[in-house]
Amino acid sequence: MFTVALLEPQIPPNTGSTGRLCGATNTSLHIVGELGFELSDRTLKRAGLDYWDHIDWKYFPNVDNYITSIAQNDTFHLLTTKSSTPYTERKFKKGDFIIFGSETSGIDEKILKKYWNKSCTIPMANQNIRSLNLATSVGIVLYEAIRQVNEK
């Protein structure tokens, strides 16, 4: 129904937990760009448990090529702490791509500038907190997207 894309994830348990979430919701997972770990890393496997064989996932080595290819369809959402648009104001549709940046640097500024109208954020009441955990963020936004589609 959806595709979650992780751009240059750095922390194996976040990718593993996201993979597990994607498997549970029949969501495709795209892992994109330079990673902070090996895809065979045992912590990645441990976080995803023995579910990797039941998850629709693919690896794409180049972030720019990946963004260019999905931007042609205009069905994507960029999650960033820099946006002022709450994710709940976005209209999600079947087939959308929900894109998250790396835990350490987020989505590259040049991508955000080029597609700013596609950006949204998860509002946080406490301004002392810079960001939420990546896997937690994926869960929040993915279930909102599923909720919106199921209401129709």
Any overview of this molecule?
With 152 residues, the protein is α/β, with parallel strands linked by helices. The chain has a single domain (3-151), classed as Alpha/beta knot, CATH 3.40.1280.10. It contains 5 helices and 6 strands. The protein has a 6-stranded parallel sheet with strand order 3-2-1-5-4-6, sandwiched between helices. Helix 1 packs parallel to helix 5. The protein is globular and about 35 Å long. It starts with a strand and ends with a helix. The model has no long low-confidence stretch (mean pLDDT 93).
SS element count, helices? 5
CATH superfamily: SPOUT methyltransferase, trefoil knot domain
Identify the CATH architecture.
Answer: 3-Layer(aba) Sandwich
Give the end-to-end Cα distance, rounded to a whole number of Å.
14 Å
Query: Overall mean pLDDT score?
Result: 93
SSE-based structural type: alpha/beta
Return residue spans where pLDDT drops below 50 for at least 5 consecutive residues. Answer: none
The tally of strands reads 6
Binned strand content = 15-25%
Main beta sheet: strand number and arrangement? 6 strands, parallel
Quick take:
With 152 residues, this protein is α/β, with parallel strands linked by helices. 35% of the residues lie in helices and 16% in strands.
Helix/strand layout:
Elements: E1 3-7, H1 12-24, E2 28-32, H2 42-48, E3 57-60, H3 63-71, E4 76-79, E5 97-100, H4 109-114, E6 119-120, H5 134-151
Parallel strand pairs: 1-2, 1-5, 2-3, 4-5, 4-6
Helix pairs in contact: 1-2, 1-5
